[in-house]
Amino acid sequence: MSNIYIKAIILSVVLASALLAPLQPPAEAASLWSEQNSLFGDRKARAVGDSLTIIISESSVASRTGNAANSKSASTKATAGTGVFKWIDNAGTSGSDSFKAEGKITNSNSVTGRITVQVTGVKPNGNLEVSGTQSIKQNGEEQKITITGEVRPEDVSVDNSVMSYNVANAQLKIDGKGPIANKQRQGILTQIFNFLF
Predict the structure, then answer these.
(1) Cα separation, 160 vs 52, whole angstroms
(2) Which InterPro entries does the UniProt record give (predicted)?
């Protein structure tokens, strides 16, 4: 086979490759480390539907003391009359009134726990609106914890959790149902009596 013939074949292959190249889709480079499966990827909540763990650590103490005192006294005295008023004898009256009241109220609350919530919205400034409910039922007693609020992305730690005191506009509700919770409530007659008096 002559050199001219070999060169002609090579030239034909090169020309065919050059003509077919525009028809082939461009090759895309694929990363070996996808963002979702990467060991080094950021797994923090950032979009609607993402989960976020809130570590509840709240305590509050309120104290109020009130004192009130009031006293009043009065006295009158009349001497013996003369002339037509001779019938008036020495007379006198006195009276006193006093009032004193003291009151003190101390209220202490402490709540700890962990609850996983979901991102329900993302505000224009990037803050995450979160909401979640946790219900625990045991031996006829049910405890339901509901929390809503707003979280800044920079307050979310690397393990995708945030402390409850970093949740803005936080609303934490704890409701209980069951025999023990019912015993802690006033009866209907007592509630009516307190309402009337």
Answers:
(1) 6
(2) Flag_Lring (IPR000527)
Structure tokens belonging to residue 141:
């007693």
What is 68-120 written as a DSSP string?
EEEEEEEEEEEPPP-GGGTTPPPEEEEEEEEEEEEEEEEEEEEEEEEEEEEEE
DSSP state of 155: G
Instruction: Count Cβ atoms within 10 A of the Cβ of residue 167 and give its class: 0-12 exposed, 13-18 middle, 19 or more buried.
Output: buried
The angle subtended at Cα 170 by Cα 165 and Cα 175, nearest 5°, is 110
| Other CB atoms within 10 Å distance of the CB of residue 111 | 13
Query: Average of pLDDT values for 81-93?
Result: 58
Q: How many whole angstroms separate alpha carbon 97 and alpha carbon 12?
A: 124
DSSP 183: H
Paired with 147 in beta bridges are 132, 172
Of the candidates 115, 92, 122, 123, the one whose C-alpha atom is nearest the C-alpha of residue 171 is 115
CA distance 58 to 104: 24
Query: What confidence tier does 155 reach under pLDDT thresholds 50, 70, 90?
Result: very high
* Contact call for residues 133 and 148 (beta carbons, < 8 A): no
% residues pLDDT > 90 (the chain): 27
Model pTM? 0.50
Q: Is the pLDDT of residue 161 over 70?
A: yes
Phi, psi at 75, each rounded to 5°: -150, 145
